[in-house]
Amino acid sequence: MSHDALRTILPVVGWNPTLAEQVDITAVADPILPTPFRIGETSAAALGAVGLAVSDLWEWRTGRRQEVAVDTRQATASLRSGHYMTIDGTPVSTERNAVMGTYPAKNGRWSYLHCNFPNHRAAALSVLGVPEDRQAVRKAVAEWDALELEEAIIAAKGAGGMVRTMDEWAKHPQAAAIASLPLLEVLKIGDSTPEKLPDGDRPLSGVRVLDLTRVLAGPTCARTLAEHGADVLKITAKHLPNLGYQEFDTGHGKLSAHLDLRQPKDVETLRGLVREADVFSQGYRPGTLGNRGFSPEALAQLRPGIVVVSLCAFSHVGPWASRRGFDTVVQTVSGITMRQGELFPGAAPGPQFYPVSAIDYLTGYLMAFGAMVALGRRAREGGSWLVRISLAQTGRWLVGRGQVPESQLQGVPKELTADDLKRWSMSSDTPGGRLDHLGPVIRLSETPPRWARPSVPLGYHEPVWPAR
After folding, report:
1. What percentage of the chain's residues is helix, strand, coil (to nearest 5)?
2. Alpha-carbon distance 274 to 265, whole Å?
3. pTM for the full model?
4. What is the dihedral sign for C-alpha 285, 119, 461, 87?
5. Percent of the chain with pLDDT over 90
């Protein structure tokens, strides 16, 4: 089934679907973890696509393709890689904020409040008019119509949504807008002469990536590019909220610097970095960085030949194009949590999240795939390129792969075996201590993926490129 899923990815970028047969995918059928959604086959397919893109760039460098292999169970584990980290032997906490979650609203409906970031938590609490207390929130949500609460929280610059069924989502105008799009797009946005890949002994040696993304999906893209030799410089700012533990998971292989784009001096510093970059990856809502002079078109003028990777929650079209969202929000509004809760009830009644962050990590892998396809096109034909994707497009693809029959969902283990996890893990010496974590998934015959740098705290480095 993973090869079938991979065959749905490759034509999106104009590749022959028969290339899927070049990937050796360990055949393990879903369910691997307790969810009806085919997280095993889709993770193996997305990583298989990355492996093919790496092989394509290696062939462009050397004339030789690589053998590519993916273990489906290991790929599935990667969809919750943050779950498997320890620092100096102590598990890294990934607990969500206590008031984040799903609550019963009026008329038998449910509402989800995304409250991990302080600003989104403050928005929800201000709308509800209650302190940061789960029981107070529950009581307040019960007085609201779920759809009205969804709109009020979005208007307050928060994040969340009304729990919908899959049928309800299918009839929603935003779902219709997303259905008009492919899984991802790779679009030429400017002319420039062809550029050979920088010299080096790895597929992405010397390729410079600016990572202006947060949370999981976008950072996973840049982490994946770093696995194959890219120099990744993550850019964030001190005033932006963050969940520090996520850097342990997605920061492998990266440099990290602070720039405050409210300050003209820092804007100029970023412009200087762009002029020497190959890839600019951003995960803000459509138009956010454009207002600061970093739209895809502006970037292509500033640095002809750049590859711009653009991620948002609900795509660039439709009534929700500018709406904030996260993996959990997309799960909520699209019917995933409703279906998960029906088949795998939680300790409390109601909708449930699947046991991984599938949409986030799958999107990150697909972003990296698109970036490498675009780099290949730049090398062959020149041009500046835009890779465009959203969490909701990935969610549509995941759900579109169908569900495991209910008869096969009995007795599904909640965890992968300790022996497997040990075999897939590695250790890194970081500024915060000895970090044990999952290693790269893809197996390549000539250039095994690896991270040349350990995870570091945000802002650990100066905003400068390392020498090539």
Report:
1. 40, 15, 40
2. 14
3. 0.97
4. negative
5. 90
